[in-house]
Design a protein that fits this description.
Length: 74
Amino acid sequence: MVDGDKGGVWDTSTMGGGSWAIFYVQVDDVHTAIDKATELGATVVVPFTDNGPLEFAHLQDPHGNRFGVWRPKG
């Protein structure tokens, strides 16, 4: 995620972020991706978020690996 005011990264510490890297997968629909991931055993760590220019969520697979799904708007 890019934020020019923060040097190209967002501070997610108040949103369940941690000291690990999270890779993001661009999807056509964040809600659909969340539904499919949870069907396959993932849990939602950071729920659907609309921050203006994009939508995203963070999930965790059954092994504890975190990942994000996102979609640019417009």
